[in-house]
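Slide 14.
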Amino acid sequence: MNLNLGTAAFFTALAEFVLAAGMLALWAKGRARYLLVWGVGFLVFGIGALLLILRDRIPDFFSILLGNFLTTLSSVLFYVGICLFFDRRRAWLPWMAGVLAVEVALLACFSYVTYDTSARVYVYGAAQSVIALMTLQALCTMGRGRGGNSNPEVVVVALLALLVHGARLVGTPFFPVPQDFLASGNFQTLLAFGLKLTHIGYALAFGNMHAAALHADLRAALAHIEAKAHQKVEILGYIGHDLRAPLATIGGYASLLLADAHDTQRKHLLTIQRSVKYQLHLIDELLEYAKAELQPLTVHPVTTDLPRLLDDISDYAVALCAQRNNRFRYRPSERMPREIGLDGKRMQQVLLNLLSNAAKFTRDGVVTLSVTARPEGRACVLSFAVSDTGIGIDMSRNIDIFGAFQQMHPANGSTGLGLFIAQRIVSAMGGTLSVASVAGQGATFSFALSVPVDASDADWPVVAQRETAPGEPSPAPAMPRDAMPEDRALDELASLALEGRVTDIEHWIERHADEAAYAPFLALLVDLLERLDLRGIHALVNRPAKS
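Slide 15: predicted structure.
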């Protein structure tokens, strides 16, 4: 193969088309405009080189004028792409357009007026050198944009392009260089191969710039995510602080009331204190949940008094069921181990979530907690089931009821997290939470756990069953109609009492506290609220008024 200008142009066109395909492929993935401009720059240079190959087969207009114009245009497109990458104003673009216009005019003159090949080479080299100088000046004034530093790789390649085109000028007869040096080989052909290598360097530099941009965008996205996560942790800290204060106040007043309480009141106050302690423990875990980012929950099995734990949970269940006039049944095995290896706080969290859901979606029905214990070597298999006679779940809907924020039936104060949390805790304990339900006929949630025990089943204590019916509404005297607010306000109060919304009832009382005519009614209402007798409040509102 002869090393001539046609051969160099052929390999240059082939390389340029490959580089253009690579740039356009990158553009198709990220849609960055600078990649499209660079890809078109390589493409037009390849087309220009291809026209030079066909110089003897096509008119001079295409092979000389259009071919040289396209190869010079590629340098302009490289400059435009660099400006787009750095998001800078293209200040040199009008000047470059002027250089292109002058180049085309001179090439036409030396092709149609005076046919001078050396002059055309000089014009082409001069136009490319001027554009390379403008590009270098722009690069020297630009920062990296996405990183804050200069781009030495693209500066070096632009400088090499300037040297190649400058050497092309020196290789023309217009400069007094030794002719034996020029005669030692096809100088212009060697420069064409050098220009091809320079364009490959441009492609590598542009690819490196694009990769640096992607890395910078990734670092910015990660920093944004970390900032958001930090904000969430701070917000949870604020929430925990604000919730802890009123709970501590409730616990303090309960401790004061214990001093003068009789046995029945003492039992209720102790239940309040246990509830406060449990809620404070959950608040302390808010930050742990945020930092864990929904990773599997950790459980810490300790020696736990199982009958006592289930009795405490039953006390909470009675209060939950009473809000909607439900009967609560506790059905344990006749015998159960007293001390087992179990995370009692997590177990309480699971069962209270299940019991709360059952009580929430059942009215005038029955909620049952069943617990069975079966010995298995030095372990015990505990089976838990929470069932209700409420509205049930339509299982044919194929919805993941254990997913986060899933709400099968919208309810006031419901976030859809109860079953999600319960399922995660049961899974961490080695069990599986399952559900059986028929729409309109209630639901049953159950799971089984294997826990270590020390005592043999013969030493297990007897455990009594328990059933609690909802209490009758407190007797409330009939109030004169003119001593009660208007019907619309009373209907709102009845609805709040029916739904167990204690805080909203307090706000209702505050709104009517300044109305002296209602003072006896409000005093009775406050007394019922202090005893958490929501059914008594509902009965007071609905009792026929005295005329």
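Speaker note: The beta strands are 302-305, 327-332, 339-342, 366-376, 379-388, 434-437, 443-452, 466-468.
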